[in-house]
Amino acid sequence: MHEGTLTRPRIARAGILGGLAGAVTIDLYMLGIFVFLAHTATLTSFYQYVASGAIGKAAYGNPSFAWLGLGLHVAVSLGWGLGFAYIATRTPQVLARPLVSGIVFGLIVMLSMALVEFAAAIWAFPTLATFENGVIAHTLFFGVPVAFVTVREMKRV
């Protein structure tokens, strides 16, 4: 697909749909692991943690900050989806190999978000299990869905 055949609204649509797909799949995975399987978080505390990246420990003081966390998570996912779509228009290999591109993209997202957590003073040195879980979550349940949905939307006639 040549970038000249894609309009900005079409690229934006592909990125938004990809970002939404990634947001939903990574949340389902993470909530399944932490809330339902390991019982180490609640739905509220999960999203309060996300909000704490923006407002600090105050996010844990009020359950309504979970809504802020959910909104931030969706907004950040949309931003990553739009970024992936932009890169895909300029790099033919991304469109040609969505699985590999999605995995690499997921690793980039994971490392970038770790830097955000570090800057927000909420980062904790991961155990091997939490590191592996983070890699699985960000590659298979975020990067790959973003890549496949975005590429599919860009190739639609």
Folded structure, characterized:
- The protein has 157 residues and is an all-alpha fold.
- The protein has six helices and no strands.
- The chain has helices at residues 8-37, 43-55, 65-90, 92-96, 98-119, 128-155.
- It is globular and about 50 Å long.
Shape: globular
Distance between the termini: 11 Å
Count the beta strands: 0
Number of domains: 1
Oligomeric state of this protein = single chain
User: Main sheet?
Assistant: none
Number of helices: 6
Reconstruct the topology from this structure:
Blueprint (H helix, E strand, L loop, with lengths): L7 H30 L5 H13 L9 H26 L1 H5 L1 H22 L8 H28 L2
Helix pairs in contact: 1-3, 1-6, 2-3, 3-6, 5-6
Task: Write out key terms for the chains shown.
single chain, 6 helices, globular, mainly alpha
Structure at a glance:
The protein has one domain (about 5-155). Helix content is about 80%, strand content about 0%.
